[in-house]
């Protein structure tokens, strides 16, 4: 697509973000540009510790601005846990880590009622689990059993937890950033399709380049401690930025292009099961957030192209013939984009 696709959105960008969203854009006495600068500051803080994963950091920021959940997949030892922990520290969010194991029970995540002595005698009190935080790192989520994995489903989708017949609202903002090792490794359980669809993105963390790995080794294997990270983005400003992201203009033909792309996943002969309308909504929102992260006030087709694979790759199931030929979901998405 050419720049003509962005003309209407670009012309209307300033008026949309400064009139309808005028009061919201000034929440916390910050203008739109200040919020975008704060997002850039978060990226800078994360990059103090994380070397050479710029694309991954950007996509995690997009997920947070979309109020969505992210699934990070890679081999062990690539810094996924450090990345999520650092992101929480830079954004002034309460962090909680859940180490998934085969013997982890749902109540270990959500919490349970316990019997306690009170002034009126003994009474059952709900003891909140680690799910009650802003940023939840569900480490190696595919090592938990499907029963425990499903305990996260209500929290991810409804932002609430039900225990002992009572519903408890989770704090805002709330994100589940889950890591997983490749499914074919021993002792892992594939995530249910209904749960993977709740993740806004599936982000693949690749091995660093030679130069990046050399920097990592020199920095952390020769006595240097983990750098301190400053909190540069408050919860209030994050909530304001999330509202502004949804107001970022997108041209009608770019939106239609997103819908057409997702619809093609349901018709392509290499795909057995295509993506649902949830993918269309997620891709539009992710494109808006990427534009915001990069300091722009309108969506370009490049934003859609960059966000297409992370948003769609875990929402489609390839035909067995495509898998036999060695195709991956990313290969098919790239072909559909062409």
In short:
This protein is 47% helix and 17% strand.
Note down, in words, how this protein is organized.
The protein is α/β, with parallel strands linked by helices. It is 47% helix and 17% strand. The chain contains 15 helices and 11 strands. The protein has helices at residues 7-20, 22-25, 32-46, 54-65, 80-90, 106-110, 146-158, 193-196, 210-220, 235-247, 252-264, 277-293, 301-312, 320-324, 329-337, and strands spanning 69-73, 95-99, 111-118, 121-128, 135-139, 160-163, 166-169, 175-180, 199-204, 271-273, 317-318. The strands form 4 sheets. It has a 5-stranded parallel beta sheet. The protein has a two-stranded antiparallel sheet with strand order 3-4. β3 and β4 form a beta hairpin. α11 (252-264) crosses α12. It starts with 6 loop residues before the first helix and ends with a helix. Mean pLDDT is 84; it is low at 1-16 and 18-28.
Number of helices: 15
Distance between the termini: 11 Å
Shape: globular
SSE class? alpha/beta
Radius of gyration, taken over Cα atoms and rounded to an integer in Å: 21 Å
Question: Order of SSEs, N→C?
Answer: HHHHEHEHEEEHEEEHEHHHEHHEHH
Q: Please give the share of residues in helix.
A: 40-55%
Percentage beta strand: 15-25%
Number of strands: 11
Uncertain residue segments: 1-16, 18-28
> Main β-sheet: number of strands, strand sense, barrel status?
5 strands, parallel
Indicate the mean pLDDT: 84
Strand order in the sheet with the most strands: 2-5-8-1-9
